[in-house]
Specification:
With about 575 residues, the protein is an alpha+beta fold. It is built from 16 helices and 15 strands. It folds into 3 domains: about 250 residues, Sandwich (Jelly Rolls); about 180 residues, no CATH class; about 45 residues. Helix content is about 35%, strand content about 15%. It binds zinc ion (ZN) (2 copies).
């Protein structure tokens, strides 16, 4: 997207000049990008130090290759692929990706009145049509923007967004970026081609594409009949990627970009298919939020909005959203009913329980999906949850040892679906009034559901009373691909190389003891500015925490110290 000249927001120079925080880069050997090796960590920099390093590298490279005009995107593109495909030249570059804007600052400046510019990603996040806004906890890069510092040939390898979400990338300043994109309709063709091209890599690591460390030349994809598009993004321009659109690319020199995910209602169907892929496909990947929680919460929110302003449903846009949400809920309900009934027939116990807090959503012990509406536990390991698809997996215990825990009852889902019918259906004043009444009943119930745990575990009547499951055999197979608007084919976006840490990796939770040791280690290392994720992981090796975990804890620690200092300053 190329906005009109003069429309761009001010560059946030204040945040850029605040150059106290350090980050670790990813070290990339450009000449061996097609080998799919995991990137090592590079050096540590502040933003200013990174800029100086990147610019010095560009100058050196320009001297070594006087034959390439660094301002000619086509010439740089040829040089890049020569390196990747022929290894004629070697290049080691560092990418400053996935930097939390809360720590490193957003690139979007405010106007003279201190107001955020309309393009500021904060606005996108809170936009009524962005379904991700109902995800209550912060997931950096997903619900919160990330900053990316690039240099000549710094590369983002082929990937799709988590949960097949859309993404928006803005290039604040610096050199251009070359992008390649594959429309969502060709996602499977892309995966098959990647598998065929580098079979050895896929054997070693079936999730290679999700590690974002491999680059298949676009020419090879085109030869295999995969549709690939290409663009060069200049500063001040946006790139949008649509659901399940694979994308990759590289920078032409030092630059600063910012990116965030979003979920338009048209994404919902892809979001559900992503979950299916996570739980059944060969591309194993962790869910980072519970899709069903998002859908039911979005439905509640829309029911609430419609209840307050019944006229809204006359709007075509709102009607379309509401009907899409309703259909999504109907599909979810139908799947749930089939699974629940089948498990009851197999003799599992049933309990109706309070839904946990969002932070406590856990992945299935067997697959990478994050079930929400109901889960199965077994007495042999009560802390582990199973999705309904894997209810009988992971141990040999009998069905009677297992319990189906229902967090949202069918009737509640049906109520929501009914309330969303008003989206298409309100014709008369009486209908509207009825909608409001039904809606308030729903909201009250929502409020009750969210009240502090009343905890009595209701045991449902005997299994026999559950109606037999409808015969539907296509539970696991995703619906046929629905191709998004053709404009999607020309749109793709930036996202860094290493994945943000998926929520469900088996990693240690921070206990009070670990936190105490962490704080001591920070002090020993010379305070929050001197400490790094790497050094902390070494210092805390007895606790078996990862470098990423330490880095993220360190960021939080810095924020806490900063906000304490701010609070003291205002006193
Ligand atoms: Zn599962
Ligand atoms: Zn068991």
């Amino acid at each position: 997207m190329i906005p009109p000249r003069g429309a761009a927001p001010r560059w946030n120079g204040e945040a850029w000049r605040r150059d106290d925080a350090r980050f670790e880069t990813k070290l990339q050997h450009v000449h061996s990008l097609s080998e799919g090796r995991t990137f090592q960590f590079g050096k540590e920099y502040t933003k200013g130090e990174y800029e100086a390093m990147a610019k010095a590298y560009e100058e050196r490279w320009a001297k070594e290759r006087p034959d390439v005009d660094a301002n000619d995107a086509n010439a740089l593109e040829r040089a890049f692929w020569d390196m990747v495909e022929t290894r004629s030249e070697q290049a080691r570059v560092e990418y400053g990706n996935d930097l939390d804007t809360k720590i490193f600052g957003t690139g979007f400046g405010v106007d003279e009145n201190g107001e955020k510019h309309p393009w500021d990603f904060e606005h996108l996040y809170s936009h009524p049509l962005n379904l991700l806004r109902v995800v209550e906890h912060d997931i950096p890069g997903l619900t919160k923007p990330w900053l990316y510092l690039g240099m000549l040939f710094a590369t983002f390898c082929w990937h799709v967004e988590d949960h097949f979400l859309c993404s928006l990338n803005y290039l604040h300043r610096g050199a251009a970026k070359t992008w390649y994109g594959v429309p969502g309709s060709d996602a499977e063709a892309f995966e098959n081609c990647a598998r065929a091209t580098v079979p050895r890599l896929f054997e070693q690591a079936p999730d290679i594409l999700h590690q974002i460390v491999t680059i298949v030349p676009p020419g090879v994809l085109v030869d295999h009949g995969v549709k690939v598009v290409h663009t060069v993004q200049q500063p001040g321009e946006f790139v949008v990627t649509f659901p399940r659109a694979y994308h990759a690319g590289f920078s032409h020199g030092f630059n600063v970009a910012e990116a965030v995910n979003f979920g338009h209602v048209n994404w919902l169907d892809f979001g559900r298919r992503a979950i299916d892929v996570y739980s059944t496909g060969s591309f194993k990947r962790n869910a980072v939020f519970a899709h069903h929680r998002l859908v039911s919460r979005a439905a509640e929110t829309f029911v609430e909005v419609l209840g307050k302003n019944a006229r809204l449903v006359k709007s075509k846009a709102m009607g379309a959203i509401v009907s899409t949400l309703r259909k999504e809920l109907e599909t979810i309900l139908s799947d749930e009913e089939i699974y629940r009934a089948s498990l009851v027939r197999r003799g599992l116990n049933i309990e109706i329980v309070q839904a946990p807090n969002e932070d406590d959503d856990a992945c299935c012990i067997r697959c990478k999906a994050m079930p929400f509406l109901s889960v199965v536990r077994c007495k042999c390991l009560p802390t582990a949850v199973r999705c309904l698809r894997h209810a009988m997996d992971a141990c040999d215990c009998a069905a009677g040892e297992r319990t189906l825990e229902i967090r949202v009852v069918d009737s509640r889902l049906r109520e929501l679906i009914k309330a969303l019918f008003f989206g298409d259906g309100i014709q008369t004043k009486d209908d509207a009034a009825k909608a409001r009444v039904d809606f308030s009943a729903n909201v009250n119930r929502v409020a009750v559901n969210r009240a502090p745990p009343p905890k009595p575990k209701v045991v449902l009547p005997k299994p026999k009373t559950v109606k037999p499951p409808p015969t539907r055999a296509v539970l696991a197979s995703p619906p046929p691909a629905r191709i998004v608007a053709s404009k999607a084919d020309d749109a793709f976006t930036a996202r860094g190389l290493p994945r943000k840490r998926a929520k469900c990796e088996t990693r240690r939770r921070w206990t009070a003891e670990m936190v105490a040791d962490f704080e001591v280690a920070v002090e020993r290392l010379g305070g929050v500015d001197a400490a790094t994720g790497k050094k902390l992981a070494e210092a805390l090796s007895a606790h078996d925490v990862t470098r990423d975990q330490c880095a993220s804890r360190l960021q939080k620690h810095r924020e806490k110290i900063k906000s304490n200092a701010d609070a003291r300053a205002t006193l």
